[in-house]
Amino acid sequence: MSIYIKAMQYVALACFLGGPLFWGGVWNVLDTPDMRPITRQVWRRVCWGTVLGAGAFLLAAYAEALRVASDVIHITDFGALWEFMTGTRYGHMTLGKSVLVPGVLASFFWVSAPRVRWVGTTLCGLALLLTISLTSHAAAKPGLAPLVGDIAHLAGAVVWSGCLLYFASLPWQAIRHHLTATQRVFWRLIERVSTIALVAVSVLLGSGAVLAFLHVYGLAALSETPYGRRLTQKIVLLVLALGVAGWQLLRLNPALKRLARAAMFEAATALLGRCAWLARVETSLVLGALCLAGVLTTLSPAERPAHVTPMTWERVLGDWRLQVTMLPSGEPGHVQFDIALTSMHGLDIPPAMPLIGHLRMREHDMGTRPREATGMAPGRYLLPGRLSMAGTWEVALTWHPAGAPLQTTFLEIEAPTGALDQDRSRRLEWAALSFTPLALFSGLLGGLLGGLAVVTLWASRRGRMPVWATPFGLTLLAGGAFLVLRVVLVDAYPTTYVNNPVSGTPAVLAQGRALFLEHCATCHGATGQGDGALAATLPTRPADLSAAHVDDHTDGDLFWWLTHGMPGTAMPGWEAQLAAPSRWTLIRYIRSLRQGKT
């Protein structure tokens, strides 16, 4: 039931806000005395659409509020219901919609001063979008960037779909009958709708890329989660709609202009019918995507999974058949391998035959050691393991049957998450732009391409560049956005991009060395190579702090691990024992181990 309510709410919102937008931003600007008969028909349709959209939107908003309230109270208890409406954010936003919807209607229909009318309508409309975003998935994210991105995404969707809805519902038959008198204004009308849609689509795609990064952990989520599957369907509909819009923009619109300038009105009228049909097709696709956007708000985002996805393997090595099942176990990142080993010739497997497993990451040495699997029955073993972080892992399984050669096989694991990833968060981090010279260059180049894209799109819309400059400008815009977003959209700890406030002076390094010998050398060794006195007794070898992998992490990463420890390892958090300046000092010394400054 909830998905239908949400779909209705989003479509009604486009119908409600699209009416004032189309009338004030498109039709009324181009209205002339020759267009008055058609204008009256358009005005009636805008009025009816706006009022019906407002009513349907409020109805859906209150229906959804009652559904949410029914999860915590009995909705027949009016006292508790009023407390829900006045004491919760969802209730506040619903009451806010009750005020803002009449505000939009009053500004649009009854304010006579044009400037006051459009300022009031716009502000009330934006505030209405805010009430929706404040109860969305983005509102649960830290910082303002997710909320601003959600508002921009919703605004782009409403502008595009609302404008298209009323453009598709124009009195096309009357327009074709009056084409001789209204042709010049009508071509400007098409260009204006195209320009507004172009801006809306650019905002929609840019904000959509940001929100997809924040809410979807990877490409696998698009097929493995309900949220990802609905998002994929939405993207497919939007791509089809963009294809229809591109065909109309690049082929039909120029052809219509040429026919009109050549006074071939009969051919232009026929082509205008195709234009109207394509507008309705595009509108249907966009409204379908809008319905799916409403459905997405009822599903849990496909964020970082709490556990690794179960996997199975089957191998045949000579006379042996191996079946392995990996299942999540306990804490995030912890897994257990259920191993079944059978002889192809039906031979009995000795209960004492050991099986050794070694789980390791390909890209990094995580200090893992081979361990013997626990024998549960002849040919049946259990092997626990821990995936520290997302990436490509492999487990090597080795056994040595009596009187037969040693057998070894390797199983590959693509881990979408790990024990160390659970404290990370996906977010927009502008500090990442200045963190490295390469990141800064990428950001500057992206900004330059974005500026060129804006100039190209403006010139193409003004007729100063050919029509093919529009897709070229969009390509530049996409490239510039990619170069910037690839840097500022991060999956990181809260302290990852915090600069070390302690300078690396000789005095600081000496102080850091003293701290290291006192607190760290027991496990990591005096030179940080992971060979301390307790290293051999630990289940996971301590990290070699003089190795190259240390350079793969920022000082902020190291600070987070020093503060909170590393889940699933013997590495504790030192927040209670060491003050923040001491932890930063210790990090300076750890860096010197790698850089040879000791």
TrEMBL record:
Record's protein name: C-type cytochrome
Q: Under the cellular component aspect of Gene Ontology, which terms does the record hold?
A: plasma membrane
Q: Which segments does the entry list as coiled coil?
A: none
Q: Which residues cross the membrane?
A: 7-30, 42-63, 90-111, 118-139, 151-172, 193-219, 231-250, 430-459, 465-489
Q: Could you tell me which Pfam families the record lists for this protein?
A: CopD, Cytochrome_CBB3
Q: Which organism is it from?
A: Tectimicrobiota bacterium
A single MF term (Gene Ontology): heme binding
What does the UniProt entry say about where the protein is found? Cell membrane
UniProt keyword list: Cell membrane, Heme, Iron, Membrane, Metal-binding, Transmembrane, Transmembrane helix
- Choose any GO biological process term that the UniProt entry carries and state it: copper ion transport
**Which residues does the UniProt record annotate as the domain Cytochrome c?**
507-594
